[in-house]
Design a protein that fits this description.
Isopropylmalate Dehydrogenase, binds 3-isopropylmalic acid, binds nicotinamide-adenine-dinucleotide, alpha/beta, binds manganese (II) ion
């Protein structure tokens, strides 16, 4: 079981260390971890946010555990050298087109949510976010507008092939649950979304057991907060999924709780290759202070065991340990508590 560990910047190394300790504590046969540089730290050491050596390490691994990238020192660099290009590059190069972002309020943990408890209690959804297309990867640039002012532009597009393959992932995800799927788009305004919606409808024709609905993204943002119980699986595009998943994390209680899995269709000797990372970033405002909540990264390691190594029992053990640490009042500053990153990691380990 070869895992490339890419801690990255800011709180990335802090939270990744705790997740690695949890993985190591499971004593899995043949577990081998490799460390690589990504993001701002890789730029500073090697002149590129995604060095060839790191990409090769990721390609040769069975799974990648990723921390976070992003460094305010690098925000003025040319775009292709910025830390964020490392994660975008990995997703694209490894063809990780399906991003699974589960958002769930653990039983008895509704008081962590800013929502009313009776609403928070019903929040349990999976956001299936397309990850290698959309305005993220279109041509972009800067030009002069007609009045001589600077004009930035980014091309948004989706082709049917890209939409139908992510729709298949969403159908499988929905089928494993209650069969309900809500596709979120902006088809009332965007041609990109019209192709998205038409393609999802056409693909769903061959899936009689899936109950498909559609919602515009602005309404979806409102409904996730006001009536989250209506969502089981949300299928959406790269940009909308980025925004809605941060929103869903706040509804759960903190962005420090939400893991993610980024999958393609490449098999390894153990299962499907995937990259696993918390949905949050490098949090420069708290980096180096030992304050970060590592739970999202620890839960990402659980998703790795489930999706890339078929180890459901160990994945559940990790999830139960996190849930019971929360139930016992272990929480970081993001949840109004005082526990530090290492204390939270130790509390999870103890309950493993
Ligand atoms: P962020 O997610 O890093 O932080 C947003 C807020 O949430 C901050 O107040 C931060 O302190 C808090 N927070 C985030 N994770 C936390 C945790 N585990 N525990 C406690 N608090 C936590 O988003 P941002 O501030 O918009 O971005 C910071 C940098 O991270 C930027 O450079 C951005 O591009 C990058 N970023 C990277 C990724 C990634 O690597 N996948 C994701 C998002 C943002
Ligand atoms: C995320 C992040 C990334 C994204 C950035 C850092 C490129 O916000 O993983 O949610 O927008 O996908
Ligand atoms: Mn994001």
């Amino acid at each position: 079981m070869k895992i490339a560990v890419l801690p990255g910047d800011g709180i990335g190394p802090e939270v990744t260390r705790q997740a690695v300790m949890v993985l190591e504590a499971l004593d899995l046969p043949g577990l081998t971890l490799f460390d690589g540089d990504v993001g701002g730290i890789a730029y500073k050491r090697h002149g590129h946010p995604l060095p060839e050596e790191t990409l090769t390490m990721a390609r040769e691994a069975d799974a990648v555990l990723f921390g976070a990238v992003g460094d305010p020192d690098c925000d003025g660099l040319e775009r292709h050298l910025r830390p964020e290009q490392a994660i975008l590059g990995l997703r694209k190069e490894l063809d990780l087109f399906a991003n699974l972002r589960p958002a769930k309020v653990f039983a008895g943990m509704e008081h962590l949510s800013p929502l009313k408890p009776e609403i928070a209690r019903t929040l349990d959804m999976m956001i299936v976010r397309e990850l290698t297309g959309d305005v993220y990867f279109g041509d972009k640039g800067e030009r002069k507008a007609a009045d001589g002012s600077r004009e930035g532009w980014d091309m948004m597009s989706y082709c049917e092939t890209e939409v139908s393959r992510i729709a298949q992932v969403a159908f499988s995800t929905a089928r494993a649950g209650n069969g309900e799927l809500c596709s979120v788009d902006k088809a009332n305004v965007l041609e990109t979304s019209q192709v998205w919606r038409d393609t999802v409808i056409a693909a769903a024709a061959a899936q009689p057991d899936i109950t498909l609905s559609h919602m515009y993204v602005d309404n979806a943002a409102m409904q996730i907060i006001s009536n989250p119980s209506q969502f089981s699986v949300i299928l959406t595009a790269n940009l909308f999924g980025d925004i809605l998943s941060d929103l869903a994390s706040a509804a759960v209680g903190s962005i420090g709780l939400l893991p993610s899995a980024s999958m393609g269709d490449r098999s390894t000797d153990h299962g499907l290759f995937g990259l696993y990372e918390p949905i949050h970033g490098s949090a420069p405002d708290i980096a180096g202070q030992g304050k970060a909540n590592p739970m999202a990264t620890i839960l990402s390691a659980a998703m790795m065991l489930r999706h890339s190594f078929g180890r459901e029992a160990e994945a559940a053990r990790i999830e139960n340990a996190v849930e019971s640490a929360l139930a016992d009042g272990i929480r970081g500053g993001d949840l109004g508590g005082t526990h530090g990153c290492e204390e939270i990691g130790a509390a999870v380990l103890k309950r493993l």
